[in-house]
Amino acid sequence: MREEIIEKIIRLLEIAKNKEWTPWELQTELRKFEKNVVSVGDDLSFTLKLNGKLAVDEEALTRLGAQKTKIYPFKRAYRFEHGFIAVEDKFIRISRNLKPEELSEILLCID
Q1: 8, 39, 59, 80: which has the fewest Cβ within 10 Å?
Q2: Taking the CA of residue 54 as centre, how many other CA atoms within 13 Å lie in the half-sphere pointing to its CB?
Q3: pTM, two decimal places
Q4: Are 32 and 8 in contact (CB under 8 A)?
């Protein structure tokens, strides 16, 4: 993933961690920063729509401690010690529980 996209996603995570939001408040706040925020879940994870179809290096994610899981409707989801990511086509869902430095490493495994 390109560095400017990674920086943008890290900034969205920082906003999400900034305070205790309701899902709709967080969605409004994230969309002020990035118009491609599609939704925010009850768990305050957020979903972004990116430009191209996303490819995942599952071996690299496994080395980072990922375990495959299921998060409907995403077919590819990975749980880490502090949260999860899920990827489907052009969409990525990111748990607000991830640490920024952890998320940065994870995003390097997604293209």
Answers
A1: 59
A2: 27
A3: 0.94
A4: no
CB of 40 within 8 A of CB of 93? Answer: no
| Tally of CA atoms within 13 A in the half-sphere of 85 that contains its CB | 27
Which residue type, as a one-letter code, is found at position 75?
A: K
The tokens for 97 are 């529980």
Q: Any idea what DSSP says for residue 47?
A: E
For the chain, the residue count is 111
pLDDT in tens, the chain (111 residues): 789 999 999 999 999 999 999 999 999 999 999 999 999 999 999 999 999 999 999 999 999 999 999 999 999 999 999 999 999 999 999 999 999 999 999 999 999
In whole angstroms, what is the distance from residue 89 CA to residue 110 CA?
12
Alpha helices in the chain (DSSP H): 3-17, 23-33, 58-63, 100-107
Burial of 50 per CB tally in 10 Å (0-12, 13-18, 19+): middle
Beta-bridge partners for 40: 46
